[in-house]
Amino acid sequence: DLYFVKLGVNDGFYTLSTTHPKPALEASLGLTPIKDGSITFNMLLPDKISRPNDTATPANKREFNLVASYTVGKFSLGADALYVEAPKDNTAQVPQKAKASGVALHFSDDLKPFKISGRVEYVKDDPDAGNIDLVGLGDGNKGWSFTLTPAYSKGPLFVKGEVSYVSADKPFTNNNKKNQTRLGIEVGYIF
């Protein structure tokens, strides 16, 4: 397909409530100008007065994401740009407009039975009066991450590992650190 358009309505950032339900509009617009390349624009627009909840503070944050990808054989390369904003609203408990942005580069190479994927990301959360964290590093913080994900599969069995490193300008972890390394392993059987 040369292009696609998807529209939907969901419960935003899990704002499902019997007293204050606030739906969100979601949309994706995609273009495949050449066989191996694509560009997609995604957005999520919750109601401006969506109240914070257990899974989202703030719950009125609007996300805009541009994704480009290109594939050559079994090698894929992509880039993402992200812009997030929470508009000022007293009901949503956002005293001043909050903004954040980020970029990412990612790749994947399928060398059957092995596959290697990775990404490098940079995010920046602009400081605001409400001390609002839109990207998970804390208000006014910026940082980058590097993730490498090797995998092996044979028939329905697979093993996937992950190593990820995050570094920020200011502490963002529970133990007051400016960086964090995570390791993970997943073993599975595909039915």
According to CATH, the homologous superfamily is Porin
The fraction of residues assigned to DSSP E strands is: over 45%
The percent range for helix content is under 10%
Count of DSSP-assigned helices? 0
Report the C-alpha radius of gyration, rounded.
19 Å
Measured between the Cα atoms of the first and last residue, the distance is 29 Å
CATH topology: Porin
Low-confidence stretches: none
Tally of DSSP β-strands:
10
Q: Which CATH class is shown? A: Mainly Beta
Strand order of the largest sheet: 1-2-3-4-5-6-7-8-9-10
* Overall spatial form: globular
**Class from secondary-structure proportions:** mainly beta
Provide the residue-averaged pLDDT. 92
Largest sheet: 10 strands, antiparallel
The appropriate CATH architecture is Beta Barrel
What is the N-to-C succession of helices and strands? EEEEEEEEEE
How would you explain this protein's 3D organization?
The protein is mainly beta and 191 residues long. It has a single domain (3-189), classed as Porin (Beta Barrel), CATH 2.40.160.10. 0% of the residues lie in helices and 60% in strands. Strand 4 (62-72) and strand 5 (75-86) form a beta hairpin.
Concise summary:
0% of the residues lie in helices and 60% in strands.
Can you tag this structure with a few keywords?
ten-stranded antiparallel β-sheet; 191 residues; Porin; 10 strands; 0% helix; mainly beta
